[in-house]
Amino acid sequence: MHDMSSGITTDEPTAVLHTGWTRRVVGHAAILILVNVMVDTVIASPTFVLPELSDAFDTHQFAWIDSSAMLAGATWAPLLGKSADIHGKRTVLILTLLVAGTGGIVCLLAPHISVFVLGRVLQGAAVAGLFLTVAIVRDLCAPKFAMVVTGVITSGSAVFGIVSPFVLEVATDAFGWRVVFVLSAAFAGMAAVFVRCVIPDSRNRTPGRVDVAGALTLGGGLAGVLAYISLGQEFGWLSGASLAFLIGGVAALLVWYVVLSRVPEPVIDIRGISSALGLGLLVVVMGTGAYRSMLQLFGLLVDVDPDDGLGYGIAGPGALGLMFGIPSVGIMLGGVLAGWIGTRVGPAWPLAAGITLGATASLVMFTAGTDTLPVAVVCSFMFSLTAGSLVTSGFNLASVLAPPERQGTVSSMVMVMVAIGSVTMSFIGSAVLGAHEIVFEGEKVSSSAGIHAYIAVAGCVFVLAAVPTFFLVRTMRGRVVPDVSEVTHKDLEHAGR
User: Fold this and answer.
1) How far apart are the first and last CA of the chain?
2) DSSP letter at 482?
3) What is the Cα–Cα distance from 281 to 412, expressed in whole angstroms?
4) What is the pLDDT of residues 38-91, one digit of tens each?
5) Do residues 77 and 83 touch, judged by C-beta distance below 8 A?
6) Same-domain pairing of 352 and 487
7) Cys staple from 342: which of 147, 283, 285, 314, with CB 3.0 to 4.6 Å?
8) Which pLDDT band, with edges at 50, 70 and 90, does 484 fall under?
9) Residues 72, 423 contacting (CB under 8 angstroms)
10) 1 located within any domain
């Protein structure tokens, strides 16, 4: 079997790969950023209307409503990544946008929670949009320049995050929770039209077929295990429903690993993953999971007044905008810097910087940031730099270690790690808070001990992530990304070893 990290190859003449910013490149980047704005409307925007959704569907399953799209994204990713390599990244991206837009319409019109969750599952296809935009950049740009552009498109959508809390607050007050899904479907439709009309189709394709049975089995296994993590806290870790998800998911993963991953063209060649790529994926799953869990905690802290005497809380004038607006700038800055630094020293070092920042922010948050808004804002900004750096560097690492004809497949693995880390750590954090609840004014609330335990868990995950990061930096030492003009076949073969 081919090693997924077999090197950097190109099927196109060097003249057609962009090496710097031009009007055409700016136009392509703007459209790909629009795609990722749509992804944000699927993943993040519904969190602003969770109470309204709870009332509309008479349910308290906040976590399931919030995480269903990310769970579905982990299921969609392997199938869409392999399909993109075979049938073309632009074609699959357009289909992905149309499916996600349809999901938004289903959510908009859903009469029952089960139909709403089905819509969220369809919307989950949008998660693939992020890694497909990265794969398209790798087809259009020379290797070094592609790292910079990747930083711009993966973090540029954060600009939308600066204004979205304020816009959505006004819009939902005027039109209700459904406006969130109107916007999501509209962004999906616009992005599909622009991608079809402006983004060129890729010449880098891999002859073969999509192992649909393997993709569905792998995706179903991931969904089963993640659903157990999602529902175990609510229904009990040993309840029949929870165990059914776990057993079914583990069984599907075993069937895929033992049988279906050995077919001539598996959806993911797991045995061909190099040590460098494996270490990078491990860093991404731990680092992004820890960051996402802290983002969830900030939402809790903003709702609690420090004068309540609980030992935590940062509610106050402008707290929501400061905690969720300024960090959007940090995500954009972290992504752009990670791409720029990666062109000079490789993607492993900015990945390491992101982990270091996350661990430092966790320490500061633990010691002084749970009841002081200025400190919490600084920590939130540091975490956002971490997020931008980790996502951009994770995709850049995959781009460096995979040839163009397998960019979709390998980039999808990064997205699966982001989804797994996000869902797992969010629910671990929820379980920690649930185990430390106290009664305050007749209601159950999180205790100060629970809040600090939550931060400690996230900090420990960052510290543990430093271990594979160290070995990754050692493994990648001396392997600088070549410019397209510097690439020869001999160099390419050497780069994959």
Assistant:
1) 15
2) P
3) 11
4) 888 888 778 777 767 877 887 666 556 667 787 788 888 888 888 888 889 999
5) no
6) yes
7) 147
8) very low
9) no
10) no
